[in-house]
Design goal:
The complex is a heterodimer of chains A (571) and B (113). Chain A is of the alpha/beta class and 571 residues long. Chain A has 2 domains: 230 residues, P-loop containing nucleotide triphosphate hydrolases (Rossmann fold), CATH 3.40.50; 221 residues, P-loop containing nucleotide triphosphate hydrolases (Rossmann fold, 3-Layer(aba) Sandwich). Helices cover 39% and strands 24% of the residues of chain A. In chain A, the strands form 5 sheets. In chain A, strands 5-4-7-8-3-9-10-11-12 form a 9-stranded mixed beta sheet, with helices on both faces. The radius of gyration of chain A is 47 Å and the shape is rod-shaped. Chain B is α+β, with helices and mostly antiparallel strands and 113 residues long. Chain B has one domain: Glutaredoxin. In chain B, strands 2-1-3-4 form a 4-stranded mixed beta sheet, with helices on one face. The chains are: A alpha/beta (571), B alpha+beta (113). Chains A and B meet through β6 and α5 of A and α1, α2, β4 and α3 of B.
Chain lengths: 571, 113
């Protein structure tokens, strides 16, 4: 079956599950209990056909007055008045209360009347809402079966894409009791709507039970009746990929954290900040919001914990000024403190609001609210879809998650287990030392980015958030005043050592100077000695000469026969 | 028997077994209980579907009585005669001339002969 032979329902999630919509020209059975949304789904199918596909439709109402259906549907903004009667026709087929019955009957009158109407308006889609009402009037099972066959054959021969809705009660185990079971074997597609209450929280689910000639998602999908009608939640089916991956970085709002992450978070990434209460999760996410707004990116801040004004005031105390961005419309604060309901409701509301605000950055504080009582089962899937959706939209998501101090999970994982889904996981914790609690920050993981694996200290002041290195000494991590003490002691010791070194330097210089002076005086002494020695030598020679001269003279005088002695000069 | 005329309109769909049965049953009731006092108009919705639409006839066969006032709609093959006679004021109570029965004003009139 190709996509062209499917009739789009206008319900995004349902079209995804069925691979394009309901089978064109065939009959779809819609079964559900009271208040499960059968009429709304069926009507939305007609409205979508009439508005967007130029396929006029007929709504056969067995149970409710058309006027009431129309006025109920007004809340979804479908403007049924514009579509009536050319594009959308309501047939009031409620059995009259004073109807007298005598013997069996058939529906050929209605089908003949509808045939006339279909020809007039060129209808392509038809809904029989609450067929069980009229079937109940038939005296026996054989007659009921006969009329269902008649209806089915008529739908096929008129080439109409039809929805037949039937009421069904579910038993205490939640299993659907299906009346007129044989209808399911006859129709080409069957959808079951389920509405249950888990721990006081309403949970709606939709399941496609069969779809002839087409593959479909067989699992239950949660759905919600929202402001514009039906919304079915679907997780990404395998093989679908519409995520725009980018290398662009967005600032986290804390300079040192950006450095630790190698430039900041990735655009479109999902960041999880976990920690015990009071570890500055909100502050860290507030810093991100401020940085995003300062870049001019539209941002939405969803706070489950406190009122938005409180959040602004509290963040103001650490130098994060969000008020100006709220005023210029860049930042949209959503306080979801008072909203109770299913996790599904939260998700749909967040999605709708974020879309309306055209948010590029989203903060959910804390996302663990989703797993409040009654939502344990669905919360994980909701968190998954939140991340999936933000990724598909290219929204950078920062969510915080509370770790319950009493829980044994501690650092191992957040209650929603989204720590495995998140791209970046920052963990904040307390370190208690010497009567002090200090905040430590570590990056547990960050996909695709080099990141520091050192624990840092997070310091909050009225100037903002700063991240400092912790002091590690002897295998111990020190924070707060102990770090300060250690640091100042170290600083002091360094100064003392520097002075001592200087002193020794001076001393050595003095000794060197002294030695040099001594060398000089010795050299002078040596020169004097040498001169003295030369003088002595000289005087000895002169003396010897004198002696020689004297001897020669004496010889001359004596007239000696020995010749004069040679003058020998010795030095 | 009063001279009042009973006007019946029977909506049928072609020659469906239910419809044929209804025609037969209606004729028999009229002949038995209202000889010469009735008129039957038969409308085939397959031939005139627009009429079915405007008159909101969705189940066939449907018998519509407009006279005597007030009108009624009876759906089905008319095989259970008793409820029909009750509606038409020809119920068993009247036929047995129940002694305590009083004449009513308005509504379905029960006439003493």
């Amino acid at each position: 079956m190709t996509v062209s032979s499917k009739a789009s329902t206008g319900i995004a999630g349902l079209d995804d599950i069925t691979g394009g919509g309901l089978p064109q020209g065939r009959t779809t059975l819609l079964v559900g209990g009271s208040g499960s949304g059968k009429t709304i789904l069926a009507l939305q199918f007609l409205v979508h056909g009439a508005k967007d596909h130029d396929e006029p439709g007929i709504f056969v109402a067995f149970e409710e007055r058309p006027a009431r259906i129309v006025s109920n549907a007004e809340t979804f903004g479908w403007n049924l008045a514009d579509l009536q009667n050319e594009k959308l026709y309501f047939m009031d087929a409620q059995p009259m209360p004073d109807l007298v019955q005598s013997g069996t009957f058939d529906l050929s009158g209605m089908l003949a009347a509808l045939g006339a109407r279909i020809e007039e308006m060129g209808a392509k889609r038809i809904v029989f809402d609450a067929l069980d009402i009229v079937l109940a009037l038939l005296p026996d099972a054989a007659a009921q079966r006969r009329e269902i066959y008649r209806l089915h054959a008529w739908l096929l021969s008129n080439d109409l894409t039809g929805i037949v809705t039937l009421k069904a009660d579910s038993d205490e185990h939640g299993a659907m009791r299906q009346p007129y079971g044989f209808i399911q074997f006859m129709v080409d597609c069957a959808i079951i709507l389920n509405h249950s209450v888990v721990l006081g929280v309403s949970q709606r689910n939709l399941r496609v039970q069969k779809y002839r000639g087409s593959s479909f998602d067989e699992n239950e999908a949660p759905f919600l009746i929202g402001r514009s009608g039906f919304e079915v939640a679907v997780t990404r089916t395998i093989g679908r990929s519409d995520v725009q991956v980018t290398n662009e970085r967005v600032a986290s709002g804390v300079e040192r954290l950006d450095t630790m992450l190698g430039g900041g978070y990735y655009r479109g990434a999902s960041v999880l900040i976990t920690g015990f209460p009071g570890t500055a999760k909100t502050t860290l996410s507030g810093a991100f919001a401020e940085a995003a707004c300062a870049r001019g990116e539209r941002t939405m801040f969803v706070s489950f914990d406190s009122d938005s004004n409180e959040v602004i005031r509290n963040l103001g105390s650490v130098g994060i000024e969000l008020n100006r961005f709220v005023e210029n419309g860049t930042l949209h604060m959503v306080s979801a403190r008072t909203i109770t309901g299913s996790a599904e409701t939260y998700l749909v509301r967040i999605k709708t609001l974020a879309r309306e605000h055209r948010a590029r950055c989203l903060v959910v504080d804390p996302v663990s609210t989703l797993s409040k009582s009654g939502n344990e089962l669905t919360a994980h899937s909701v968190a998954e879809r939140l991340i999936d959706w933000t990724k598909a939209e290219g929204i950078t998501l920062v969510c915080t998650s509370l770790l319950d101090e009493m829980s044994s999970q501690s650092e191992a994982g957040s209650p929603l287990q989204i720590s495995t889904l998140a791209d970046t996981w920052i963990h904040l914790n307390y370190l208690v030392q010497a009567g002090e609690r200090n905040r430590g920050m570590s990056i547990i993981k960050s996909r695709g980015t080099a990141h520091s694996n050192q624990v840092r200290e997070l310091i909050l002041s009225d100037a903002g958030i700063t991240v400092t290195d912790t002091y590690t000494a002897g295998g111990e991590v020190l924070m707060g005043t102990m770090r300060w003490e250690k640091e100042s002691a170290e600083r002091h010791a360094t100064e003392v050592a520097a002075v001592a070194a200087k002193l020794r330097n001076v001393r050595v210089e003095a000794e060197e100077a002294e030695l040099e002076a001594r060398v000089k005086s010795l050299q002078l002494e040596l020169a004097a000695k040498m001169t003295e020695k030369a003088v002595l030598a000289k005087s000895a020679e002169v003396h010897h000469q004198e002696l020689l001269l004297g001897r020669n003279r004496m010889r001359e005088l004596r007239g000696s026969d020995v010749g004069p002695e040679e003058l020998s000069v010795t030095r | 028997m009063s001279e009042e005329l009973f006007m019946f309109r029977l909506y049928i769909s072609g020659d469906a077994p239910n419809s044929l049965q209804a025609i037969a049953n209606l004729s028999q009731i009229c002949e038995t209980h209202l000889p010469d006092q009735y008129e039957i108009e038969i409308v085939d919705v397959l031939l005139d579907p627009k009429r079915a639409l405007t008159e909101a006839i969705y189940m066939t066969p449907t018998l519509v009585t407009n006279s005597p006032y007030p009108g009624h709609r009876i759906v089905g093959t008319l095989s259970h005669t008793e409820p029909i006679l009750q509606i038409l004021g020809l119920g068993a109570a009247r036929r047995r001339r129940f002694p305590g029965l009083k004449e009513r004003v308005g509504g379905t009139q029960v006439r003493a002969e």
